[in-house]
């Protein structure tokens, strides 16, 4: 902060006429600063979610996977992962902490914890495999679809998609807990709602992708015809 000019502060050097010139290595220093910004609070929360995945699986399957105490601890890990998912993206956008790492790691962390929970539940016989297949198939399919149409634009997250994510989290969390009685019945209905929202929002994203692709092709064609004219 208080370093003199020309002492390697990376800001600028002054020539004989007193004009400021970029200091040697200034670009390298700037790049280093940008690289260091990867270690921000939003990315740290994303890393925490990634670390919680193996911890969740270990807790979920401990002692055969049916001990209520271990299942409660697994639920706590799952809940923390879901809560941090709500905050890291908001923090990144609000405080300009968006990084390439975050763009890649955030969706991976989301799908990793949800996928781990669904697979564990199905492996333990608590949840039908077709439910796990529908949810994971939809999530992976839409992610692939986003990459396929990225050249034409970005498919924005819809309110239905956000509601789907919330409903999935609540439903899976209820299944992770060793619930009995009317709560066990309630969780079945919540999961049913999550599956319906998963399918409906998935079809909506497919529709958006088709419209986006057609619009992009039409705009490129129009631009090409205008250039040739």
UniProtKB/TrEMBL annotation:
Q: Could you tell me what reaction this enzyme catalyses?
A: a CDP-1,2-diacyl-sn-glycerol + sn-glycerol 3-phosphate = a 1,2-diacyl-sn-glycero-3-phospho-(1'-sn-glycero-3'-phosphate) + CMP + H(+)
> Where this protein primarily resides, as one coarse class?
membrane
Give a GO molecular function annotation for the protein: CDP-diacylglycerol-glycerol-3-phosphate 3-phosphatidyltransferase activity
Keyword Transferase present in the record's keywords: the answer is: yes
Q: How does it sit in the membrane?
A: Multi-pass membrane protein
The subcellular localization recorded is:
Cell membrane
Similarity field:
Belongs to the CDP-alcohol phosphatidyltransferase class-I family.
Protein name according to UniProt? CDP-diacylglycerol--glycerol-3-phosphate 3-phosphatidyltransferase
Gene transcribed to yield this protein = pgsA
